[in-house]
Specification:
The chain has one domain. Helices cover about 50% and strands about 0% of the residues. The protein is mostly helical. It is globular.
Length: about 60
């Protein structure tokens, strides 16, 4: 079962934050580098298109 936006990131640098507050770029990095599993991986896969869009928008704001 995948986590929801209000669920807590269970491990890693952002442990204890709501999933919606974990930076999209970090979640994408976890996925692309095969560093996630279980419910965190399911959350990322379920939200991957949105996470990529969010990361792209944030990177444009930093230019």
């Amino acid at each position: 079962m995948a986590l929801q936006d209000d669920d807590i990131m269970p491990w890693g640098v952002h442990a204890g934050k709501k999933m919606e507050d974990v930076p999209a770029s970090y979640l994408i990095w976890l996925h692309e580098n095969n560093k996630c599993h279980g419910e965190v991986r399911a959350y990322i896969v379920e939200n991957l298109d949105f996470l990529k869009l969010e990361a792209k928008q944030k990177s444009k704001g930093n230019e």
